Automatic annotation (TrEMBL):
It catalyses: adenosine(37) in tRNA + 2 reduced [2Fe-2S]-[ferredoxin] + 2 S-adenosyl-L-methionine = 2-methyladenosine(37) in tRNA + 5'-deoxyadenosine + L-methionine + 2 oxidized [2Fe-2S]-[ferredoxin] + S-adenosyl-L-homocysteine; adenosine(2503) in 23S rRNA + 2 reduced [2Fe-2S]-[ferredoxin] + 2 S-adenosyl-L-methionine = 2-methyladenosine(2503) in 23S rRNA + 5'-deoxyadenosine + L-methionine + 2 oxidized [2Fe-2S]-[ferredoxin] + S-adenosyl-L-homocysteine. Specifically methylates position 2 of adenine 2503 in 23S rRNA and position 2 of adenine 37 in tRNAs. It holds the Pfam family RlmN_N. The lineage of its organism: Bacteria, Bacillati, Actinomycetota, Actinomycetes, Mycobacteriales. Coiled coil: none annotated. Its EC number is 2.1.1.192. PROSITE patterns: RADICAL_SAM (PS51918). Disulfide bonds join C119-C356. This is Probable dual-specificity RNA methyltransferase RlmN. It comes from the Bacteria. Residues 112-351 form the Radical SAM core domain. CDD domains: Radical_SAM.
Length: 364
């Protein structure tokens, strides 16, 4: 099935306003509109971001008489877990979230010895139509609201706390959707995720990665926001001819433009950019492509780049497969030989369709 590129999300209504949609000023205004004293704003933020409570009935420092109006105005129950499945001995857990309008999308929690990483969605579905990606084949249903993005983080943080499994240290926008196609809401969500208490979860921006298919102007804009986050660019091949077919948005912003934008990001932020490369057997894994990738990246980004090779996770109906290990090793060797750091990403969640590119929530 060939999908169309879609930049503008279909005009579906976003959910009602939630506390997590608001910045500190917005929350102060909302609290005033409810006729509550100003100090309640900080208290509500502390309950939500600090104590990870999203139900005002559990906010014991809030007068019982105010709880209902606060719930109505600021805490609609945006997400319901429709299913939760785990693998890797419980160290990888996928949640299928159902929104108020029954749109669904997924988030994946991965536990490692020294970190907990949550892979979150920024859109329901995706409009970028990358041919090897399950979400890309599904098309775009709608953007997620800021609060729907933030709620994925709150829920996972609360779950980790309740199981005594430590804090959430890393957030990757590598679930469903193209984060930079839902730009303003994603940036607002990043601010809530990284803001110190009481107006955010206080997760270090260094632990937050925004992954993009390569929307060059939006990459530059993101650099100028000075969020301190890591940028990942899904390149998948160094040449335009093949990239046009794998990543259709390449017909709009070509490899050179994407790498220029990545360089701008690295210069402005001082942060090394990650390059994502799904290694596909006999498609983009040839030695000459590894050489070309290394050369182009070294020229464009010098030391400010790291290549993450992702063994292709086959999606239903796909003819494609991951490259054999010797081919993968040779690819790594050649990229490194050009002076570019390169590693292979470990693949989590394959058997529960929770690995990169496998997220495809059923719609309805
Ligand atoms: N839209 C964002 C986030 C997508 S998911 C982006 O394109 O970066 C995160 C990564 O998984 C991307 O690099 C994406 O290209 C990759 N990916 C998609 N499908 C995959 C598959 N079947 N196997 C391996 N990686 C895949």
């Amino acid at each position: 099935m060939k999908q169309q590129l879609v930049f503008e999300a279909p005009r579906r209504a976003l959910p009602p306003r939630h506390l997590a949609d608001l910045d500190a000023d917005g929350l102060a205004t909302a609290v005033a509109e409810l006729g509550l004293p100003a100090f309640r704003a900080k208290q509500l933020a502390q309950q939500y971001y600090g104590r990870l409570i999203a139900d005002p009935q559990q906010m014991t420092d809030l007068p019982a008489t105010a709880r209902e109006s606060v719930a109505d105005a600021l805490f609609p129950k945006l997400l319901t877990a429709a299913s939760e499945i785990e693998c890797d001995a419980g160290e990888t857990r996928k949640t299928l979230w159902r929104a108020l309008d029954h749109t669904s999308f997924e988030a994946v929690l991965m536990r490692y010895p020294r970190r907990n990483t949550l892979c979150i969605s920024s859109q329901a579905g995706c409009g970028m139509a990358c041919v090897f990606c399950a979400t890309g084949q599904q098309g775009l249903t709608r953007n997620l609201s800021t609060a729907e993005i933030v709620e994925q983080v709150r829920a996972a943080s609360a779950e980790l706390r309740d199981r005594d499994q430590g804090r959430l240290s890393n957030i990757v926008f590598m679930g469903m959707g193209e984060p930079l196609a839902n730009y303003a809401r994603v940036v607002a969500a990043v601010r809530r995720i990284t803001a110190p208490a009481p107006h955010g979860f206080g997760i270090s921006p260094r632990g937050v990665t925004v992954s993009t298919v390569g929307l060059a102007p939006a990459i530059r804009k993101l650099a100028d926001e000075q969020l301190g986050v890591t940028l990942a660019v899904s390149l998948h091949t160094p040449d335009d001819e093949l990239r046009d077919t794998l990543v259709p948005v390449n017909t709009r912003w070509q490899v050179a433009e994407v790498l220029d934008a990545a360089r701008y990001f690295a210069d402005v932020t001082g942060r090394r950019v990650s390059i994502e490369y799904a290694l596909i057997r006999d498609i983009n894994d040839q030695p000459w492509r590894a050489d070309l990738l290394g050369k182009k990246l070294h020229k464009a980004l010098g030391q400010l780049v790291h290549v993450n090779l992702i063994p292709l996770n086959p999606t239903p109906g796909s003819q494609w497969d991951a490259s054999p290990k010797p081919v993968e090793r040779e690819f790594v060797r050649r990229v490194r030989a050009q002076g570019v750091s390169c590693t292979v990403r470990d693949t989590r969640g394959q058997e529960i369709a929770a690995a990169c590119g496998q997220l495809a929530a059923e719609q309805g």
